[in-house]
Amino acid sequence: MATNGDGAEKSVMVLSVKPQLVFAASTASDAINFYKAAFGAEELKRDMHPKRKADQEFPVILSAHLKLGSTVFLVSDHSDDDSIVAPPVKGVVSGCVFCLETDDVDGLVAKAVKAGGVVVDDGGEVTKEGMADCCGGKVGKITDPYGYVWVICSVGATGDVEVKKVEGGDVEA
């Protein structure tokens, strides 16, 4: 908790989380096109690096805001002056998995594959029932052309887990 000037504690809340996907320089535009084609993402805004534009170097996307359902995420090119983050190494798991809920798992998996995604083969099935990782219903997994993993699951399946607050602020299922 933060404190007010009078020493009283005030509540501080996170209002939203916007994941930022970082790509090797000049590939963010291709990634944006993939997310539009594969998942129906809507591009809300795009900010370009002004220095790169002026120097006639390859264009660098500082951030593009994409909307999937009610969630907004950012897509950016990695640039030499960006010391905080680096793009994932192709062929290596990024350490980040995105779960998408849909009422047509097979249809969205097929759309993602058509756009260039690759099905993560879990025993030869494109989609499975009752997987325990994040969903309780039908699930399909794809890896996008940039190394990010997308778990596509039935609507409402992720909300079936009962969560309760335990001592110390930790959450227990």
Write up this protein.
Residues 17-155 form the VOC domain. InterPro entries: At5g48480-like_C (IPR054575), At5g48480-like_N (IPR054576), Glyas_Bleomycin-R_OHBP_Dase (IPR029068), VOC_core (IPR037523). This is VOC domain-containing protein. With 173 residues, the protein is an alpha+beta fold. It folds into 2 domains: 1-87, 2,3-Dihydroxybiphenyl 1,2-Dioxygenase, domain 1; 88-173, Signal recognition particle alu RNA binding heterodimer, srp9/1 (2-Layer Sandwich). Helices cover 16% and strands 33% of the residues. Strands 7, 8, 9, 10 and 11 form a 5-stranded mixed sheet that branches. A 4-stranded mixed sheet has the order 3-6-5-4. α1 packs antiparallel against α3.
Task: Name some characteristics of this structure.
single chain, 173 residues, alpha+beta, 2,3-Dihydroxybiphenyl 1,2-Dioxygenase, domain 1, Signal recognition particle alu RNA binding heterodimer, srp9/1, 2 domains, five-stranded mixed sheet, four-stranded mixed sheet, 13 strands
Question: How do the strands and helices of this protein lay out in sequence?
Answer:
Layout: E1 2-3, E2 9-10, E3 20-23, H1 28-39, E4 42-48, H2 50-54, E5 61-68, E6 71-77, E7 97-102, H3 105-115, E8 118-119, E9 127-129, E10 138-143, E11 149-154, E12 164-165, E13 171-172
Helix pairs in contact: 1-3
Organism: Kingdonia uniflora
Protein name: VOC domain-containing protein
InterPro entries: At5g48480-like_C, At5g48480-like_N, Glyas_Bleomycin-R_OHBP_Dase, VOC_core
